[in-house]
Write a structure and sequence with these properties.
381 residues, Aspartate Aminotransferase, domain 1, Aspartate Aminotransferase, domain 2, 12 helices, 12 strands, pyridoxal phosphate, PyrdxlP-dep_Trfase_major, Cysteine desulfurase
Amino acid sequence: MKPSKSSIYLDYASTTPIRKEVLDTYQVCVQNYFYNSESVYTPALQVHDYVEASRKKIAEMLQVHSDEVFFMSGASEANSLAITGYALKNQHKGKHLITTKIEHSSILHAFEQLEALFGFEVTYLDVNKEGLVSLEQVQQAIRKDTILLSIMAINNEVGSIQPIEKIADYIKSQTRICMMSDGVQLIGKHDLSLRNIDLFTFTTHKIYGVKGCGILIKKRNIELVPIVHGGAQEQGLRGGTIDAPSCIVAAKTLRLIQLEQQKSYRHVVQLRDMIFDALAQMEQVHLNSTRACSPYIINFSVHTMNSEILMNALNERGIYISSQSACSTRTKSPSHTLLAMGYDEKHALSAVRISLSHLTTKEEVSILLENLKEILYAYST
C-alpha cells in the first residue's frame, strides 16, 4: 500500500511548515520592514519598535520581563550562549557543571568545549530506561564548586519529559546554582513555569514559524559573556544585525501555537495511541518511548533491520520519518540517547523516530502503519 495522493510528513520534531498567518505577516515584513533596527531614521525606528513590541508580547506569554527576552539565530546559538557565556562569566565561582547524557548536540558540544579548552569539569548524569533523570541524582552530583545545571525539558529523540519544575524548585531554594533548560520540544506542546528557571531556550521553526529565529530567556540576575562579538545589539550579548522580520513574527508564532495547544495535544494523544497499539502487535518492534513521554515523539527499534533501511523504504513510499535528531542523522552513528538509556549499539542503530503534529491526520497514521507492516513482512521473508 502506498500513499495515494501526496507525501506524508512525520518529522515535526525536526522542523515544521510555516503557518499561513505567520507567513503572510512575514512576507509583509520582509518587503516593507527591511531597515536595520539599530539605525536612527524614521522607518528604522519603526522596525525597532515592532521588534520590541514582539519582545514584550513574548515576555507576557512566558511570564517574564521583556528585558529577559533575547533574539538569537536559533536554539543552537541560544544554547551555546547560555552555557558557554554563563560558564566563562562565572568561572570565578567554580568550574563544575552538570548536564545529562541525552542532551541535544548543541548542549553537549558546548560542555565538551568547556572541558577541553577552558578546564571545566562536567558531570554527565545517567538516565534510566525511560530516559529520565531524578532529583536525587542531581542532589548527589552537586558540589561546592557547581555553578550550572542544564537539563532539557523534553528529549528530542524519545520524548521523555524531565521533572524540570521539581528540580528547578530545589535548585532555586537550596543552592545558588544557575538552572538552565532547553525547551525546544516543549514550547507550544506542554506547560512549564519559568519561575525558577534562569536560562531557557526555544526556536520558532519548531512551532510553525520561520527558521533563523531562536529565543533565549535570561533572567535579570544572570550574567553572561557574549560569544558573537559586534555591536551593542541584544544588550551587548549578541553582536550583528538581527533578522527583524523573523523577530517581529515570533510573537505571533508563539501566540497561535499556545492558542491551540490543548486541542492539539488531545488530537495528538489519539494518534499516539493508535501508533502504540499497532506497534505493540508487531513482533519485530520494540518501543523506546513510553506513554509517559510526550505524545508528539514516538521512538521505536526494529530488530530485523537498521534504521536507514526502514527510512529508505518508507521514503520510497512518500512517508518521511527520521532516525534521531536532524542535527545528528547524517553521522550514521548510534543514538547517544538510546545508548545512555542502556540499549546496545545494534538496538540504537535500528531506532527510528516518528514525530506528530496537529496537522497529522488519522488517515496518514493508518497509511503509515499499513506500509510499515508491509515493509516488515517483506524484510522478514
